[in-house]
Amino acid sequence: MIGANNYGFADIVTRCVTNWVTSPSWWKNYCSDDSDMTSRFTAARIASETTNVRNALLRVRDAMANAGYSASQYTILAQTYWSPVPRGSGFRYPESGWTRQSVGGCGVWNRDADWANDVVVNALNSTTRNAAATSGLSNVKVLDMQTALNGRRLCENTVGLLEERGVPSWTSPGAIDKSEWVAQIRTTSTVFGPYQLQEASHASYWGQLAMRNCLRLAYNGGAVRGGACVRVADGLTARGEPQMGL
Predict the structure, then answer these.
(1) For residue 103, what are the CA distances in angstroms to 18, 21, 97, 170?
(2) Which of 240, 97, 100 lies closest to 161 in space, CA to CA?
(3) Domain containing residue 161: CATH number
(4) 96 partner at 20 to 30 Å CA-CA among 61, 149, 212, 228?
C-alpha cells in the first residue's frame, strides 16, 4: 500500500469534516470544490504521483537485485485502497442535524462522500494500478481492495453501531455482520489522544482481518495471484476472519 499520504489523506478528511461541522444544511460548504482539495487530483498531479509510486516499485526491484534475488524468486503485490464511506445515498444518518458526526463519526456532506468515492479513492487506486502496469516489472500483481468493505463501511445503512443493533459486544456472535469495519472520524477526542485524526476512516479490527484474508487469498500458498477481493458471505471463516473471495 502506497500513495495515499502523497495526496494528503489526513488533510482531506480534516477539511471535509471541518466544512460539514461549520456550515448549515441550508448553506453547505463542500470540501470537494475547495481549490486546495481539487488541486490534489488534477491530471498532472495524478501523473506525478503515479511516477512516484512506479519509481518506488523499481527501487524495490533494485533492492532485491542487490540482495541477490531474481524477478522469478519473488512477487510484489501492489494493494489498492478500500472505500471507507458509502456514497451520499448510502448513509444511515441524515445530512441535517448533528447525528452524522456526533453519533456516527462520519460528518461529511453527501456530495463530498460521492466525491470521496468517485475522485479520491479512484485517484489513489488508479495511481497504484497504473504504476504497476507501467513499471515494466514482470513480477507485480495488483490486489484490488476498492470494494472489499462495501456493506460494512462507516455509517453505511446496511450496518450500525453495536447499541443501535442491540449487540452487547463487538465479539458477540453475529456482531461482525451487524457492525462497521471502519474507524469513526473522531474530532474532540483527537486533541489529546489516544486517537489521532489520521487514524480516522481506516479499517478497524474486523476490517483488518478481512484484509488479512484477502492477502492470504492473494498469496495462494505461494502461487501468488492478483484480483479484486470482495466479501462473499456473512460470518467468519475457520480462522476467525470475514468471508472474503478473490
Answers:
(1) 16, 13, 11, 17
(2) 100
(3) 3.40.50
(4) 149
Which triple of cell numbers denotes residue 117? Answer: 468515492
Whether 33 has a pLDDT exceeding 50, the answer reads: yes
Closest CA to 24 of 109, 111, 89: 109
Average of pLDDT values for 13-28?
92
Can you tell me which residue has the cell 484477502? 214
pLDDT value for 190 = 45
Average pLDDT, the chain: 93
What are the counts of helices (DSSP H) followed by strands (DSSP E) for the chain? 8, 5
Q: Is the peptide bond before 94 cis (omega within 30 degrees of 0)?
A: no
Do 125 and 55 form a contact (C-beta atoms < 8 A)? no
The three cell numbers of residue 190 are 483527537
CA 38 to chain centre: 19
What residue has cell string 472489499?
148
Contact 240, 183 (CB under 8 A): no
Tracing cell 485502497 back to the chain, one arrives at 81
Among 53, 39, 197, 228, which Cα is nearest to 124's?
A: 53
Retrieve residue 174's grid coordinates: 453475529
CB atoms within 10 A of CB 222: 6
Expressed as residue numbers, the domain containing 83 is 5-245
- Residue 74: phi and psi, rounded to 5, are -155, 160
DSSP-derived 3-state class of residue 79: strand
